[in-house]
Amino acid sequence: MNIKKDDISKRRSQLSPAKQAILEKRLRGESDTPQILIPQHSQQNPVPLSFAQQRLWLFQQLERESSTYNEIVDIHLKGVLNLVALRESINEIVRRHESLRTTFELWEGQPVQVINSTFTVALPVVNLSELPTVLQSSEVERLTADIIKKPFDLASAPLLRGALLQTSEEEYVLVLAIHHIVCDGWSVQIFTQELTALYAAFSAGKPSPLSELPIQYVDFSVWQREWLQGEREKTQLSYWKQQLANVPSTLPLPTERPRSPVQTFRGAIASFQLSAPLTSMLKSLSNQQGVTLFMTLLTAFQAQLYRYTNQEDICIGSPIANRNHPDIQGLIGFFVNTLVLRTDLSGNPTFIELLGRVREVCMGAYAHSDVPFERVVGELHPERNLSHTPLFQVMFVLQEDSKKDLKLPDLTLKWLHNHTGTAKFDLTLSVVDAKSELWGFWEYNTDLFDAATLDRMIGHFTNLLEGIVTNPDQRLSDLPLLTIAEQQTLLVKWNHTTTNYSEDNKCIHDLFEAQVERTPNNVAVVFEEEQLTYSELNARSNQLAHYLRTLGVKSEVLVGICLERSLSMVIGLLAIL
User: What is the pTM of this model?
Assistant: First the structure.
């Protein structure tokens, strides 16, 4: 992939403001164009899975005991709780959205969606209020982990479970786990929006204020397969086949441990927060360059990975809401698609130059975002390796701060940020735009990375961003990366090698000979499979020194040495001295 600056300018000029606006809407998951209505499916025949569901269904068959794709709703409730209204609200959401009553079974050898006519979420209450504070916290943590880490059986209802953990008379923790195959991040927002609206109504004895949904997820599944075929599918797949031709199989990240033969999914997160001034400058830079904040942060992340790997062809995955049809904006279900953003970093470009390249990559990707990631992988047939995901192993996410504290009648809701203890990829950088400040977390595979490494990565990312807003015309190799503590270690601590010797006026070879007398049989030097003791090294150095004297070498005569690193090089240096 060789992308020239002239090519970038030419392609950028071809994108009209109207086209750019459409692509920006796709980035935010908004409907970009008026479209025909999605028809309701008769449901007389079994409904096939959507393209996105197929991938997760297959994964779950291979990893039946995995909780990698469990979504979490974890909210702290404080105030006077109407438990009946809360249960009614959750069950009304389940009634409204068929996806939450869907299971997945085999029909004639193929997985299909089976919609259960009714299903009631029990939402048991676990009273922990009598426990001491220390035990109470650990018990909340244990019970939460049990709920969110327990695997789901996709063939058995429900694919949603939860509990209400009571910690005092007016404090609770609501924990829900929902399998990703029926829910995504956008769906979690819908769930909480409907929950607050329904709870407010039911606690006041009023009926549901929500209108009935025009379609259900199965209607989308059928429509998607019918709509994405023929010339439309061919055009989009053609773009991805060209864009991702001959992609590198992996990104050689600096891991603590080698990759296992079969990919593991144990993970953790490391949180970070950027200052308000830095956030403001990043948004200002984005506006000046005519790009989105997403593109600016993605470019910085690409630069960081380039500095780690020295790889000039980098693929990063990024999710897209994939809700560009108005009929599916308010549905709970699995719609999210994954785009592979491949960037050429050759030629050590400036940040501004790389930003232009990333902009073009993003524009092209979002213009062809309808075709599912699963279809792209199937069309490309990349070399499959059980040790890593195909096409990319690192993901980048930017999202708005949707999990804000909520206020209900006599009740305050505060989001908790628990983690499933899993990692879908080697690294995932998730940034949340809270308007005044950016914050987020790095999700990492704990079989590859240590927590200390992620702390350093966070420091590097912050330093890069500060260097970028200070001077975006710097080349990638010149952008600041190391933290002050790392600079001190590398430049000062590790170079503080002064040694005070007790014997004055002794040369190096004199000190060496003294060591030979003290430990003649100790190993003095090692190279690969070879080694010499002090006495052996001394004898061979003396032999070479005598030979040099026969050639006329004496004090103050310069002797050049040209050797690769080896035992002979050490022998030669001592002989010359």
Answer: 0.81
